[in-house]
Amino acid sequence: MTDEQINAAIAEACGWTDIFEHPEFGLMGVAPETHGCRTAIEDYTHDLNAMHEAEKVLKGYKQVATYVWHLGINAGDWSTGENMMTTHATARQRAEAFLRTLGKWEEV
Q1: What are the CA-CA distances from residue 39 to residues 6, 16, 17, 35, 102 (Å)?
Q2: Is residue 44 part of a domain?
Q3: DSSP designation for 36
Q4: Which of 34, 57, 58, 31 is nearest to 42 (CA)?
């Protein structure tokens, strides 16, 4: 998935609506619990703070455990034994694990 596809999918999972690609401003939409004003969607693939907020969408032990499992796979190179701690995962790695957890990841 491209960064834009990932950002749109995460925004939708976080409750954003009316998501579209603006020719000048990039991805835009209506954030949850706002008065319908369109704003730029968070850059989840590059912003750890945005991913921190997105992670709050995960509910219950099963989703959180699945997320951590996907995060562990994506955060290191298990074939060489040089895997990093999941706490060091990049925003892009967290975004992929998040979408895989919700079953919204699309293989390219």
Answers
A1: 17, 10, 11, 11, 24
A2: yes
A3: S
A4: 31
Helix (H) or strand (E) holding 43: none
Domain count, the chain: 1
Contact present, 92 and 45 (Cβ < 8 Å): yes
107 is a domain residue: no
pTM given for the model: 0.86
Question: What tens digit of pLDDT does each residue of 19-74 get?
Answer: 999 999 999 999 998 888 899 999 999 999 999 999 999 999 999 989 988 887 66
Distance CA(33)–CA(68), nearest Å, equals 28
| Entry field: residues in the chain | 108
